[in-house]
Amino acid sequence: MSAAPAGNTPEHTTLTLHYRSTAPEAEGPLTLGQDNMIRCLRHDEPSHMNKQATWSVPPGAELPACLDALRTLAERHAALRTVFPGPADRHPERQRVRAAGEFTVRVIPLADGEDPAARAEAYCWDGRRQAFDLAAEFPLRFALLTRDDAPVLLAVVICHAQLDGVATGLLFQEWLTLAAGGTLPPPTAPTPVEVAEQEQSASGQRRTKAALRHWEHILADRPTSVFADDRIGPNDTLLPTLGVRSTAGAAALERAAARTGASNSAVLLACYAVLAAHRAARSTVVMAALSANRHRPGLADHIGTLAQDALLAVDTDCPDLDTLIARTQAHALSGYWHATFDAERIWQLIEDVAVRRGARFARHVVVNDLSATVPAEIAAARPLPPTEPDLAWYPAEPTPTRLMLNIWRTAGCLEFTLHTHPDVLDREETELFAHALLRLLDLAGTRNVTLGPDSEIAPLSGLPTARRDKARWQQVGTNWIDLDAVADLLRTALPAARDIEVTWENDELIATIDPGPTPLTPTRAHTAVMAALPGHDTAMAPQRYVLPHGTGTGRDRDLR
Questions:
Q1: What pLDDT is attached to residue 560?
Q2: Molecular function terms in GO for this entry (predicted)?
């Protein structure tokens, strides 16, 4: 139970803290949230998947009390003692909860006049870029910043495999109590192992099957790419970030929610969707909403990771914004309810539907409402924006999408960030989007806003809308497809082909191919095209392949 020095430099000292819980070791299958997050961690950059937080230190709290508080958190919560055994190059199948172990805390003395927030940010950014060892490492990395030996701020890097945003916020609230010398009642929420047992039950299995049906309904016939126009090129996942803070926006949101009877989240989501639809020049916006899954019974205070995507298809073809807000709230509730799923089966479903449609879900639009995960104490301590609204650009971050809205705070001051791909919105247009969102909220707080043929969105926003003038655009089902982009895709997938012609005939996308010396069947052609498709967001696989020795869809063994 000691705190032993583990190493030091002129700039910091690293202490090792040992913990021992009264709960025994435990083991069980992964929860659906753990499984989903581990898959993401194995696929995406660590800096994108690892999260960060800065925890304030209670007034007068001394170093021993702070260290004891962190040790107590580890002993209270099974998620902090959870590892995922197995080789690093394989997806784990089990979670194991340790009864005892250790973790480290870096103690960093601040220089005279040094900004603790800036130092914490630097520590967190460095820590986020380093992947966690899921089989062995404690899921939190701590740096306690001190001034004249007194703790002033705690920087935290969080592994998403064990903790989501809500859980991190709950831990912060417990930290404040414990570091101030207070005590806490024993946790009552289920542990991750207990959550996994419930998910494996008959009722849990019914829920995951319902989620699969929900996802298949949207994936099968809604647009796979929201943005498809002359500006859209290959995807670059390193996106610039615009931060927006507005006290007037928070007041307008509160008025709009009161006037419409909807939640703050539904109002923001509807406004975001209608602006995205305007930019895309289409009525349906398919978006991924990162879901905390806290609506499930008994999980509001769960310490663990429950985060999975909710899939929403928001139809903005409405006469007015009030109608859209009500519709969006219903879509969101349905999407969140169906956000508990087996990630492996969802990814297989996405692949199967892609092969059938010849188009792959591109995840162009994302929303992440984190406002409920930021404790009121942290929000209240934030300084008010110096201007109204306050806009600030931040360094680009790996963000595998085209447009993303992160909602950080809604009470007192509306705070959100926009990640935008320059093919969708350049920097000037991103600022227009932010101002348009605030203006739309202001109007929604006082009256209804007209949509439809006489929509107010274009003059209100000043945003560009999709143009499809420079290429051979064709609507194929619910997708806009550039036939020239399809031909480029085929040349990438079939480099040995001597000649490729793409046409739209009799409501069918047809590729006539001279394969050259290499024998080619429709099935082999389609397999190669689907493998090359990621990143070609304005293309899709042909619906029929015409080859010298056979014609067919390639989706089966049909060689007619």
A1: 36
A2: catalytic activity; phosphopantetheine binding
